[in-house]
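Shipment paperwork, digital attachment
Item: protein structure file
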Amino acid sequence: MKARVTFGLMMILTVVLLTRCSRLSGKPAPDSEVPRPDQILDPKLLFARNCSGCHGGEGKEGPALDLSNPVYLALVDDGALRTTISQGRPGTAMSAFARHAGGMLTDEQINSIVSGIRGRWGEQGTLSGTNPPPYAPVLRGNPARGRTAYATFCAACHGTDDKGGPKAGSVTNGTYVSLISDQGLRTIIIAGRPDFQMPDWRGNVPGRPMTDQEITDVVAWLGSQRPHNPVALYPTNSVPGGVH
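Attachment content:
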């Protein structure tokens, strides 16, 4: 009898000790485990960590394209968004984010960012009843015609030289055009930058939308302003050891 009582007390003590051990100070709670970076799929968090530095916290007012612009999102499909995020834009500040291209994001995370951008800022029917130019060029551009079209549609705000105009900075400056692709130029001309009060292709001249050919020609002319050696734009200073 005494042995059974002793055994029972030992069992009770064991249960109490195990219960107390499960509540030890400093033991992580079941939901406190930090997920691995490649397990994060929240689109807002992924955008904040990977995109907001250039595109702005709410997709706008950053140095890069206004991703909150519903006109832009009506022009571009998910495939183009996914490709740009995955592979970047070679020759520009837009780097590749996909793992297979040297980035840090999985395909699933990139899909989450794309759906998050579309879900947060896309608006149904934005371009209903309009005939927008195609997102990607289908015509051949003519720089000479583009200079004339630029004077008609762009110079009033951006000016005619690298000093800019009364309402906006220069887009003919060698530094600027060296940092943006032809597709980037085309996209901004068509979609505008509403975060900086730049109209889309319909609003530069009242009642006179730009045609696809005019847009393509302006891009061709702006592209022709790129210096052949962009490094020459920046002065180099000698430092000890002969390194420039």
